[in-house]
Structure formats: structure tokens, C-alpha cells
TrEMBL record:
Protein name (Swiss-Prot/TrEMBL): Malto-oligosyltrehalose synthase
Domain Glycosyl hydrolase family 13 catalytic positions: 12-419
GO molecular function: (1,4)-alpha-D-glucan 1-alpha-D-glucosylmutase activity
Record organism: Siccibacter turicensis
Pfam family, one: Alpha-amylase
Renumbered residue ranges of the record's region Disordered: 501-523
InterPro entries hit by this protein: GH, GH13_cat_dom, Maltooligo_trehalose_synth_4, Trehalose_TreY
Length: 844
């Protein structure tokens, strides 16, 4: 198997085509990339900005260059010696009329060849929740009619620009009569004859006949557990792998599949042993990828979470928490807040999925001779879902694995002893169904229940934590990241080192990302915001002062002030994270550009919180008040605030740039395959999607890599532009290509610092039988930068020493970042070697 030494993620669409990507190959090669890592490239909906809404899994999307453009890009990659990794989407496809399979299912219902391709409950008509109101209401309003579909020539229900085909039996032999229908009663009767029901989008959460991707009705689950469906959806994917055009696959949302292990085994069998395969999978605290999955690892969300152990000041974070809670007006109980978010998801957003589970559980219980009251059973099922601590278990039709059975038992014991313990008998019923301890006649239904339960816990966790709780609680936005642990915890270097040793043992070939198309903010915004934990009182004083300066823009509404104090804490912190390093307070054009991005983020943040407004029922007055407040923050006329904000942000910005360098060095040298998200080789201060999917300025990145800075690589300008970060990546990736075994299988050895500034350094080594690499990087340096991010740095580590074990001592090393040669003996004094920040020493 060809394991990448480094990947470069490119988002196709939004102006990025195969030919443009082919033109970037020389740049990627020079940067040190081994594999281009492509977002989904198969045909998606016409307005897709991301490609995850696939309409044809066996066609390369013409909008980004089609098969010919794809082949040209592959040829350019091969000529340069680079490989290609494709992001594939086996879990779902678009419920769009552009999707020929879905359209066929609409037209022919259960008789369609593709009826079993999608995860549809055929005990009732297919639900199509794409009307603005109920079918009866839109019919009464004259918004629906029967016309000939201009694409097929067949009669169809027309709703605005959408043509929903009529099933042939309802019109063949009386085509003219059907096309002439205008009476509402006749149209309603014709609708009843279809294998589908047009319905309001508002009814989707409670009444849907197909499995969705999370809560997105526009994406229908695909049954890849069926061998024929797998073959139909992977025909082109496997052709590309077998031909050598594609070297690796990234499996999107593996937890959504009915049987992830079974799918991955089939994929491995069909793709062959040489295909590099990773999965998008969020791991809970202490959770690991199952040992028997035939993959190289995850896409690396857990790596992002691990970096917080290095860059968060655990000694001071409680003071930041106290300052935040003073603004909130009360202590925040995160467990209670998570419970509220999960209950909202179960009761509202996933009401239909929950109701299906409840119905199944009741039928199985009755067949098994046990019949708890429905309300009692409902409460037990609800509490078990809310109590589930990980994204899912991996039971199959045969039952739960031993590991999952043990996990379930622990969850049940903890739930039983909690304040929310449900009826013991009802909980036992649900537990036995999940475990398969039911009568023989109920085993099939129990397996269905188990699969549905497992397919719900993941979306429930994701929407509760990532897309609700993390938009409600704002103490430290850098910690509100995909894959992060929402509960209060300690942060320590010991924990980080332990995580890296485990990573080296269990998934050394997994991707190590720091930014993705799904992260809540760019890696450099996160690095900057970590510094709030180093100066919590200073940050709190800033927020209090800024709130006072902008107090006149607070509005009093019927449901309270807008924005509230907790809203402003979030706004100022988000603005601090996204602020460009060189944006001046009087740069009118720059402020306008930032305002557009920032207001889009604010609207999304308010709606995702689901407190005073949301996507279903917007609170226009509240949203307008907060958006007007945010708009005022970036108004060129608000110079008193802007000047104060930029000046106050400066020390956080400097410390954030040092954090950025440190997390970059760690990503490049710790166990795992470093993944560079497009543009993040420089500075990435993006906000949540779609902001993080913007097209980078590639010409500027190429020019910067070729640039010789007369002031030196470590000059202030190089830090502020991202040039330093880019050149560090270039240097280390070149070394990785020269020493792949060291980085892939080399031991991970933590190194302890002693002395006055021991807490301000992280150090470790990578070693194998031949080579040794020593990494030393700064941390928690907010109070030590003295007004400049540039060197010299010696005094920051004065009196600090790192002892070297015999395997590392008395060797000759070259500093990869400066080119200097040194022989440190049995210890290293960071202050004497780290004149410009981090140190990466390779034995020579």
C-alpha cells in the first residue's frame, strides 16, 4: 500500500475545476505534497457547492471538467509523481429530480428498479417534503397543476420549477384527460393514485418514509449494505482505483451506514490491498477505531482535539470560565446543557426517526410477551438515546460485538443510577432488543431496530453537540470544534503525549488535519483563540469595555434585549478569531469584505443555537437586532471601537501566531499523515462553512513559496503573511519524503523540560534504528512576547533544559529550520538553539 507522506485537500466547484487543479500540481509538488486529496467529484446537483449531494455516482461532474478534465488532472499528477485520494459518499444521494435513480423511484414507486437502492419504508407512499405548505393548501392556492414535463414529455405534477412525474398507471390511456385536469378534487384524487405524497417541508422531521443524512431531507440514505446497490454505486469508483488513476479513498460519514465494517470489508476486497482508505469518523473520549476495520485510520478530528492539550492554559482556563459565567449570569452546567440539546433533537428534529424506533420496540416487545405502556417505553428509549456517550455501536444482524455489549451495559448502569433513570422494566426491554435477546420470531425486527438505533445515535450526537451546544456555549470558541469533548476536562502535555503514543500504535497512517471543509473555524483562528486561556482577565476587561462602547446599539425586544451579554461575548470572540493579521481599522474596503463574511456567520450561529431563532421558525426582530449590532462593529464610522479592538487584539494575535507555528510543527512531525487544507499552508482565519470553503488565492500562495524575504524568514512580515508557516511546511514535508519510515513507524518519545520555563515548551522525539528527530516548540507564551512575535527568543526559555536519553544524546544534528549544525551532548538548552521559535533537529 502506498501511504501518503502528506495530502493537500482541494474543494472542487466554486470555481475550482480539474484543469485549474492540474495547474496547481507543480506548486503542490514543490510544497512537498505526495497526494492531492479531492472533495467529491461525481455529478451532484446543479447548484452544489460541495459535491456531497450526488446525483450520479458513476459520472464525473461535467461542471468541473467531466471525465476528460479528470483524466487530464490525473495525467498531470502522475507525471509529477503525485497520487490522488478521492472523497466518496456511500451513505446518501440527493433527493433531486436531477437524480435519475430517485426520479425513477418517484415515478414507479416500489416497482422501480431502484426502489431498494434507497433506504425507504415501503409500507406507505414515498414522502416528498418539498412543498412550502401542505398539499391541500398549495392546491387551494393554485400552486400545483398537471403539465407535460419538457424533459420527458410525460405528464407531471408541477410545483413552481419542479416536475414530479406521474406513475404510468395513473395517466396512460387517458393522457389528454389528465393534462386537462384543473378541478382541485380531481387533482387531489390523482395525487392519491401516485406512489408518493407531496408534503410540506415542515412535516419532514416527524413524518418521513426514507432515512435522511442527519436532518437534511434533500439527502436520502442509500442501502450500500446490499451487494447489488454497492456494485451500482461503486462502479466508477472501483474502475478509477483499479486503473491506477486513484490511489486512495476517503469514506464520508461511515457511521451512517447500516454495517460500516461489512461495507469497509467489501470496499477493501473490491479496491484491493494497495488502496489507501480512511474514514470520516468522530471518536469519543477513550474511543478507538475497531481493530478489525481494514482501513488506515480516520480523517483526524481527534488530532485537532489533542492539540488543545498543548495550547490551552489549564492553570488559567477556570478564570476564563468564571468571567464567562459572570456575563451569562449563572454557573453553566454543561451536562445539563448537553441534555437539553439532545432532548430537543430527539423530540423535534429527529421526531420521525424516534417514532419509528418506538413503534418497532413496541411491536417486538408485544411479540416477546412483554408490553410496557407506550409512554413508559417512550421514556426509556428517549433516555437511552440521550445517555449514549459515543456516536454509535457497530452491531450487525447477529447482534452486538463484545465491546459494544460491554459499552451498552456501562451506559445502562450509569443511566439507572442517574436522576433521569427510566422505568427499569422498560429500559430492560430496549436493552434486550439491542442485544438481540428476543424470541426467534422477533430477531429480524430486533436487527432492524438495532440498525436504526445505531444510525440515529450518530446524527443525534452530531446535531446536539456540534450544531447546537457549540453554538450556545461560548466560553472558549476554540474548543467548540468538530470532534471536541463538550464536557469540562483538564488539559495537559501528559495527555497529549499519551494520545500521540496511542496514535502511533493504533493508526499511524491516519490523516492529521487541523482545518477541513467542516471545521467550525480555521486552524489559525483556533490557535489565536486558545490564547484567551492565558490572559482571561484581560480578555474579560476588553469585552466589558467593548460592550460599553457599543451599548447604544443594544435593542430591547419583547423577548429580551438583543444582543444579550452572552451574545456579545460570542460576537467579540468570533471577530477576534477571524480578524486578518494586517487589517487596519481605517481600511474601508477590508472592513466591508470582512463584514459580509462575518454577518453570514452570525446569522448561522444564531439559528444553529436554536434559542431565540432557528432555521425552522426565524425570529426576524431578534436576528435583525444582532446583525445590526455586528454590522456596527465593523462600520468605518465606529473608529473608537475599531482602534481599541485592534490595539487590544495585538498581543492575542502575536501569541496566536506562535501557537500556529507550534501546531503546524506538531502536525508535520507527530504520528499520522499531515493533511494541508487548501490555503491553510499560509494563514486560515476562516469561519464555519460556507466561509471555510472559499477559494484560496493560489497565485499569491505560489508566489510566496518562491519569494526570498530580504528581512529573513522570521521577520515580522513573514509571520503576519503566513510565509513562515508555508516555508516550515515545505521544509518538513521535504524531510518526510526523504525519511518516510521515521515518520510512519518511528517511535514517539516525549521529552521533559526542566527549569524556570519548563511549562512553556513541548518537546518530543521520533526515532527508528537509523534516524532521530527532535522537536521543540513554544507554548503558552502570551506574557513573554514583549511586543514582537519575531526573534530572538532565547530569553523566553532562559534557565530551561531538556534532558536527552542515551539514544538521542551525543549525536550531531541539523536544525531543519535554520540549517545550523549542533551537537547538544546529553541535554538541550532551548534558549540557545531556538532563536527564532520552534526547533526541528534531524540527526546527520
Amino acid at each position: 500500500m502506498s501511504i501518503p507522506t502528506a495530502t493537500y485537500r482541494i474543494q472542487f466547484r466554486n470555481g475550482m475545476t480539474f484543469d485549474r487543479a492540474a495547474g496547481l500540481v507543480p506548486y503542490m509538488k514543490k510544497l512537498g505534497i505526495s497526494h492531492l486529496y479531492a472533495s467529491p467529484v461525481f455529478t451532484a446537483t446543479a447548484d452544489s457547492t460541495h459535491g456531497y449531494d450526488v446525483t450520479d455516482a458513476n459520472e464525473i461532474d461535467p461542471s468541473i471538467g467531466g471525465r476528460a478534465g479528470f483524466d487530464r488532472m490525473v495525467a498531470a499528477l502522475k507525471q509529477a509523481g503525485l497520487g490522488l485520494i478521492l472523497d466518496i459518499v456511500p451513505n446518501h444521494m440527493a433527493t433531486s429530480l436531477e437524480n435519475a435513480w430517485w426520479r425513477d423511484v418517484i415515478e414507479h414507486g416500489e416497482q422501480s428498479r431502484y426502489a431498494r437502492h434507497f433506504d425507504i419504508d415501503w409500507s406507505r407512499p414515498l414522502t416528498l417534503p418539498f412543498l412550502g405548505d401542505t398539499f391541500e393548501a398549495v392546491l387551494e392556492n393554485g400552486e400545483i397543476s398537471v403539465k407535460r414535463d419538457p424533459a420527458s414529455g410525460k405528464p407531471a405534477f408541477v410545483y413552481y420549477d419542479n416536475y414530479y412525474p406521474l406513475t404510468p398507471a395513473s395517466w396512460q390511456g387517458r393522457e389528454a384527460e389528465v393534462l386537462a385536469l384543473s378541478d382541485n378534487a380531481a387533482l387531489a384524487e390523482l395525487h392519491q393514485r401516485q406512489p408518493y405524497r407531496l408534503m410540506s417541508w415542515r412535516d419532514a422531521p416527524r413524518d418521513l418514509s426514507y432515512r435522511r443524512f442527519f436532518e437534511i431531507t434533500g439527502l436520502a440514505g442509500v442501502r450500500v449494505e446490499d451487494e447489488a446497490v454497492f456494485d451500482d454505486t461503486h462502479r466508477l469508483i472501483l474502475e478509477l482505483v483499479r486503473s491506477g488513476a486513484v490511489d486512495g479513498l476517503r469514506v464520508d460519514h461511515v457511521d451512517g451506514l447500516a454495517d460500516p465494517k461489512g461495507y469497509l470489508e467489501r470496499l477493501r476486497q473490491q479496491a484491493g490491498p494497495d488502496c489507501y482508505i480512511t474514514v470520516e469518523k468522530i471518536l469519543g473520549k477513550g474511543e478507538h477505531i475497531p481493530d478489525d476495520w481494514p482501513i488506515s485510520g480516520t480523517t483526524g478530528y481527534e488530532f485537532i482535539a489533542a492539540l488543545s492539550d498543548v495550547l490551552v492554559d489549564d492553570d488559567n482556563i477556570d478564570r476564563l470560565r468564571h468571567a464567562y459565567e459572570e456575563v451569562v449570569g449563572e454557573a453553566v452546567d454543561m451536562r445539563a446543557e448537553l441534555r437539553k440539546a439532545k432532548l430537543l433533537m430527539v423530540d423535534r428534529n429527529f421526531e420521525g426517526e424516534f417514532t419509528t424506533l418506538l413503534r418497532l420496540a413496541g411491536e417486538i416487545a408485544r411479540a416477546d410477551g412483554v408490553a410496557p405502556e407506550e409512554d413508559t417505553l417512550r421514556a426509556a428509549l428517549r433516555e437511552l438515546l440521550v445517555a449514549f456517550p459515543v456516536y454509535r455501536t457497530y452491531g450487525t444482524a447477529e447482534g452486538l460485538t463484545q465491546a459494544d455489549a460491554t459499552l451498552l451495559q456501562k451506559v445502562v448502569l450509569k443511566l439507572t443510577a442517574s436522576d433521569h433513570a427510566p422505568d427499569a422494566q422498560a429500559l430492560d426491554v430496549v436493552t434486550r432488543i439491542l442485544s438481540g435477546e428476543v424470541a426467534e420470531a422477533a430477531r429480524h425486527d430486533a436487527a432492524t431496530f438495532r440498525t436504526r438505533f445505531q444510525q440515529l445515535t450518530g446524527p443525534l450526537m452530531a446535531k446536539s453537540v456540534e450544531d447546537t451546544l457549540f453554538f450556545r456555549q461560548h466560553m472558549e470558541l476554540a474548543l467548540n470544534e468538530v470532534g471536541a469533548e463538550p464536557m469540562r476536562r483538564t488539559f495537559s502535555l501528559t495527555r497529549f503525549h499519551d494520545e500521540m503514543k496511542t496514535r502511533r500504535e493504533r493508526q499511524p497512517d491516519a490523516l492529521s488535519g487541523t482545518s477541513t471543509h467542516d471545521t467550525k473555524r480555521g486552524e489559525d483562528a483556533r490557535a489565536r483563540l486558545y490564547t484567551l486561556t492565558e490572559a482571561p482577565e484581560r480578555w474579560a476587561e476588553c469585552v466589558a469595555r467593548w460592550r460599553q462602547m457599543n451599548q447604544t446599539k443594544v435593542v430591547f425586544l419583547n423577548d429580551g434585549t438583543a444582543p444579550k451579554g452572552v451574545d456579545t461575548w460570542m460576537l467579540y470572540q468570533a471577530l477576534a478569531g477571524v480578524w486578518p493579521t494586517t487589517l487596519a481599522p481605517d481600511d474601508t474596503a477590508g472592513l466591508a469584505e470582512l463584514e459580509t463574511r462575518f454577518l453570514d456567520f452570525v446569522e448561522k450561529a444564531l439559528r444553529e443555537a436554536k434559542l431565540r431563532t432557528d432555521w425552522v421558525d426565524t425570529n426576524d426582530a431578534y436576528e435583525k437586532a444582532v446583525l445590526d449590532y455586528a454590522r456596527h462593529l465593523l462600520s468605518p464610522d465606529n473608529q473608537d471601537f475599531l482602534q481599541d479592538f485592534v490595539a487590544s487584539l495585538a498581543p492575542f494575535m502575536r501569541a496566536g501566531l506562535v501557537n500556529s507555528l507550534t501546531q503546524t510543527v506538531i502536525k508535520l512531525t507527530a504520528p499520522g499523515v499531515p493533511d494541508i487544507y487548501q490555503g491553510s499552508e499560509a494563514l486560515n482565519f476562516s469561519l464555519v462553512d460556507p466561509d471555510n470553503r472559499r477559494d484560496p488565492d493560489f497565485p499569491a500562495l505560489e508566489q510566496m513559496l518562491d519569494h526570498e524575504n530580504p528581512g529573513g524568514l522570521y521577520a515580522v512580515e513573514s509571520w503576519l503573511s503566513g510565509e513562515l508557516k508555508q516555508h516550515v511546511i515545505h521544509n518538513v514535508l521535504t524531510l518526510r519524503q526523504q525519511n518516510p519510515a521515521l515518520f510512519r513507524r518511528g517511535d514517539y518519545l516525549p521529552l521533559a523540560a526542566q527549569g524556570e520555563h519548563a511549562d512553556n515548551v513541548i518537546a518530543y522525539a521520533r526515532t527508528d534504528s537509523r534516524d532521530a528527530l527532535i522537536v521543540i516548540a513554544p507554548r503558552l507564551v502570551f506574557s513573554a512576547l514583549d511586543g514582537s512575535v519575531a526573534g530572538p527568543h532565547a530569553e523566553r526559555w532562559a534557565g530551561t533544559s531538556i534532558a536527552l536519553p542515551p539514544a538521542l544524546a551525543n549525536r550531531r544534528y541539523r536544525d531543519l529550520l535554520t540549517g545550523e549544525t549542533l551537537e547538544p551532548g546529553d541535554h538541550i538548552d532551548p534558549g540557545s538553539v531556538a532563536r527564532n521559535g520552534a526547533v526541528i533537529l534531524i540527526s546527520v
